[in-house]
UniProtKB/TrEMBL annotation:
Pfam families: Radical_SAM. Residues 105-320 form the Radical SAM core domain. [4Fe-4S] cluster binds at residues 119, 123, 126. This is L-lysine 2,3-aminomutase. The modification N6-(pyridoxal phosphate)lysine is found at residue 331. Belongs to the radical SAM superfamily. KamA family. The gene is epmB.
Length: 341
């Protein structure tokens, strides 16, 4: 079941990389040779939602550039502390869809399992930055109840591992869960939504492949890559390992002001993903979560951007522009307008 050489990708343990993540803004600013005046606002914003960024992700940032698109996704900034009408704690109403601990059941036919509360990186725009993960850390008995929920609802055909980041869970837990789910006859597919291979590509090990890909269930992994600079050689190897194991690879991104809101950013991201056999699936407009308002791109700009992508790329490399709306039966597509150039 395992193909290809994993030696270089696996040379540093992902657990060590995860444990060694930088959480002190002063250390990050020093490492990147950035202006120390950024420290006070970073500390203030981090008190609300902490800084967390692993070394392999920092290695892809440009030194001395406060506008680096990867840095902007992780560095706490003073704008996060401004109150903005319409930006709320739970923009997607997920705390109502939290059917029972560990389960978010929003859409027909599929549900999310909160496999791990942890993330390898704290993304400043995260719509779950205020999610009550402590209430969703499951005991063994609660895991059984979550599985019973899936067993008892034969309208479900797909289980989605989510979080936090589901790949922050260890492989033993993932292997057990995957076997249990594969034993439920009406479940036909497994999907994994993760940013972990993007920020720590070393997470993709033979043991992970074994844990996810050893049952009858076809596996789709939706990566969360927002910028072409994230696509380095280690991530390319991790992607190849997943593809060799038969995993279908998609990507979802969030449209973020100052990160990926220019046409050239989106073209480079789609082309880069395409080079590695990953199809762009969704481009999400920003969820209006409190603290993320400075990333907002308005709908007109977003529609024009994707319209221009259509004129430059094959259709399969143009992501669907969508918004998630609390209470809707699916993601809501935004109308786009094809333009020249
Ligand atoms: S990895 Fe995903 S869940 Fe975790 S902070 Fe980033 S966007 Fe949120």
């Amino acid at each position: 079941m395992i193909h290809g050489s994993l030696a270089s990708v696996e040379s540093v343990s992902w657990q060590n990389l995860l444990a060694g993540s930088i959480t002190d803004p002063a250390v990050l600013l020093r490492r990147l040779e950035l202006d120390p005046t950024l420290l006070a606002p970073a500390r203030a914003a981090a008190a609300d939602f902490s800084l967390r960024v692993p070394e392999p992700y920092i290695a892809r940032m440009k030194r001395g550039d406060p506008n680096d698109p990867l840095l902007r996704q992780v560095l706490p900034v003073g704008e996060e502390l401004f109150d903005q009408p319409g930006y709320v704690i739970d923009p997607l109403g997920e705390q109502h869809a939290n059917a029972q601990p560990g389960i978010i059941h929003k859409y027909a036919g599929r549900l999310l399992l909160i496999v791990s509360a942890g993330c390898a990186v704290n993304c400043r725009y995260c719509f779950r930055r205020h999610f009550p993960y402590d209430d969703n850390a499951l005991s063994t008995a609660e895991w059984q109840q979550a599985l019973d929920y899936i067993r008892q609802d034969s309208s479900l055909s797909e289980v989605i591992y989510s979080g936090g980041d589901p790949l922050a869970a260890n492989d033993r837990r993932l292997a057990w869960l995957t076997r249990e789910i594969a034993d439920i006859p009406h479940i036909r597919r497994l999907r994994v939504h993760t940013r972990l291979p993007v920020v720590i590509p070393q997470r993709v090990t033979s043991s992970l492949i074994e844990a996810l890909c050893s049952t009858r269930l076809p596996v789709t992994m939706v990566l969360h890559c927002n910028h072409a600079n994230e696509l380095d050689a280690d991530l390319a190897k991790a992607i190849q390992t997943l593809r060799n194991a038969g995993v279908t690879l998609l990507n979802q991104a969030v449209l973020l002001r100052g990160v990926n809101d220019r046409l050239e950013d989106q073209l480079a991201l789609s082309e880069g993903l395409g080079d590695h056999g990953v199809l762009p699936y969704y481009l999400h407009v920003l969820d209006h979560v409190k603290g993320a308002q400075h990333f907002h791109v308005n709908d007109e700009q977003a529609a024009r951007l994707v319209g221009r992508m259509l004129t430059r790329l094959p259709g399969y490399l143009v992501p669907r522009l969508v918004r998630e709306v609390a209470g809707e039966a699916s993601k809501v597509p935004l109308a786009i307008s094809p333009l020249n150039g």
